[in-house]
Design goal:
The protein is mainly alpha-helical and about 70 residues long. The chain has a two-stranded antiparallel ribbon with strand order 1-2. β1 and β2 form a beta hairpin. The termini are close together. The relative contact order is 0.25.
């Protein structure tokens, strides 16, 4: 499959955007009062942690595909 330069830029931007937004969201979740009960993590924190990790993994893959497509175009 050939990815155009515009799509390569878009994919790279999505990867960068993911790494800008999700860590900040993670800090907000960590500081939220619902994240810990009696010093132990709650389901609220664990579910959001899974979502954040999955989003970062997907964003990384998309960003890497964008960079590779950019280099080939």
């Amino acid at each position: 499959m050939v990815i155009s330069r515009r799509w390569a830029v878009f994919l790279t931007g999505v990867g960068v955007w993911t790494w800008v937004i999700w860590p900040r969201f993670g800090l907000a979740i960590w500081k939220d009062d619902r994240s810990f009960a009696d010093g132990r993590p709650t389901a609220f924190l664990l579910i959001h942690a899974v979502l954040i990790v999955a989003s970062l993994a997907i964003g990384t893959v998309v960003g890497v595909l964008g960079v590779k497509a950019w280099r080939k175009s």
